[in-house]
Design goal:
Blueprint lengths: L8 H13 L4 E5 L9 H4 L1 H17 L3 E6 L4 H11 L15 H6 L4 H17 L9 E2 L34
Parallel strand pairs: 1-2, 2-3
Helix pairs in contact: 4-6
């Protein structure tokens, strides 16, 4: 109840056409899927990039420019699913302990960081020459998940727990 069905490509195309017709020339969008759904990029890269290419072709055809926002907060969830699937030989042999959101930030050898860097590199290299890219945004409101007063609640990690809140005290 209260949930909307996922949008279709036709919905996206109609929204982009509406933006172009209204005179808007640029927009920001999430250039990575949310949470564990980001693993779709790993499981079927040709399908993922074909859909993204189609989107960027449409943006360009309409004379729009985009600001792709490359998310950072859910890569630990992708890493945990990825290592459980044991499908990536280059990541095998690393610690099987579940990663947290902090691993992306403070652990240079984390699987989450390796995946985030790989995705960012693939995305930027693929679309860096497009006229439809205005600029890139790295992360989205990362300040909302730090262990500051009234940000994560009470305790060292707050009410969100250690896997959902950046432990900034570990960074200093």
């Amino acid at each position: 109840e209260g949930m909307h069905p996922p949008c279709t490509y036709a919905d996206v195309r109609n929204a982009l056409r509406f933006l172009a017709a209204s005179g808007l020339r640029f927009f920001r969008f999430f250039a990575s899927l949310y949470g564990p759904a980001q693993a779709h990029w790993l499981h079927n890269p040709p399908r993922f990039w074909a859909a993204f290419d189609r989107l960027m072709d449409e943006v360009e055809a309409l004379g729009l420019q985009a600001v792709p926002s490359i998310g950072a907060e859910s890569w630990h969830e992708v890493a945990n699913r990825w290592t459980n699937a044991s499908v990536n030989a280059s990541l095998r042999g690393r610690s099987p302990r579940p990663e947290t959101v902090n691993d992306l930030v403070i652990n240079a050898s984390s699987i989450a960081r390796a995946l985030a860097l790989r995705y960012t590199n693939e995305l930027v290299r693929r679309y860096r020459g497009r006229q439809s890219i205005l600029f890139w945004e790295l992360g989205n409101e990362l300040n909302l998940k730090v262990n500051m007063a009234n940000q994560c609640g009470h305790g060292s990690y707050g009410t969100l727990g250690p896997s959902r809140c950046f432990n900034t005290s570990a960074l200093v």
